[in-house]
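Supplementary Methods, section 5.1.

A reviewer requested that the exact input to the structure prediction be made available. We therefore reproduce it here, unchanged from the version used in the analyses.
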Amino acid sequence: MTDIVVLGGGTGGTVVANRLARRLGGAASITVVDPDPDHLYQPGLLLLPFGGYRPEQLVRPRRRQLRAGIAVVPAAVDRVDTATDTVHLEGGVTLRYDVLVVATGCRLLPEQTEGLTGPGWRETAHDFYCLDGATALAARLADWPGGHLVIAIADMPIKCPVAPLEFAFLADWFFQRRGIRDRVRITYVTPLDDAFTKASCNAALRHLLADKGIEVVTEFTTGRVDGARRVLASWDEREVGYDLLVAVPLHGGAEYVTRSAGLGDELGFVPTDPHTLQARCKANVFALGDATDLRASKAGSVAHFEAEVLEDNIARFVAGQPLLPGFDGHSNCFIETGFGKALLIDFNDEVEPLPGAFPLPVVGPLSLLAESRLNHLGKLAFRWMYWHLLLPGHAIPFVPPRMSLRGKRLPAPAAP
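The structure derived from this sequence is encoded token-by-token as follows.
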């Protein structure tokens, strides 16, 4: 019997464990290691500050999301010894594996930005990338009288790169509903050279920021926060003042990765083959989701697509067959724009987001790179799909792991 240990019971770890349990059956023993007894629906954190969800709507018991027969070890990882194929848990317990899957995502590091967690933290400076932060921000926004709201990304990479933009769009709508939009100045601060991470999105969608009266400050990497003065300072000494700061903190890999010789890079992410998802450190180690160093977006859809590829490649590895280069960086995400509308983008490592119909040509029914009410409803419906299709390891109809060009309108070739 093959012993498979999955580190992390988030989106990627849960999906790949369930798929492998169904695929390999009694030929494999599968163990998921995660210290948190609850599974968090992370996309809901964006809507929680605006009253879209209550905290209890986003959390379910982790054990119930995993198929019967999968063992769950509620412990934190101390380190991985790839030389001896063992995982050392805090408390002294050791697990041996034939195949290891690293799916522990990434962690928030607000303390790494000077001053961010100092004076004003969770009072005039907030975050929404964790349940406690989003809940505290919801309470603050409910009665905030107005002023200068700054949404600032400390540095890249981050989970769900479009979420900070979505927050800005939803804040515009939220304050209009509260009747105080004329008393709120919204500024979006990013280390990138434009608002969106993809050039085609900037060309097609940047007008949304101007239309909504959202200012943009680019190439601003936050070096420190002065909570007493309510000022952000970049490494090149530019400053942006605020009355209320919504920060997206630095992200890093799981702490144990940095303690595991040869497993991760200096940021704690696992160097991974971008197509097979085999870790570079050893043949029997694989990684997916936010834990990897891949240039694909750190987003839930990416973890789902990777899990489908990884299921096949781990089964092939166990059978002694060559791995297949099945992952192409496919990412798919809704972008809330407020007023009951949303955008949808679908892209991979080589093809930028394109306009068109999704997932079926012509009929869609969803539209790409265009606002629509149906896209917004699609995002809301995704919560049901997450719990009942994605986590159990079922394929999403008409959305394969490799990106399809069906229904997409390709740009006209450049003139000679």
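The chain has three domains: 2-48+58-108+252-318, 110-250, 331-390. These observations are discussed further in the main text.
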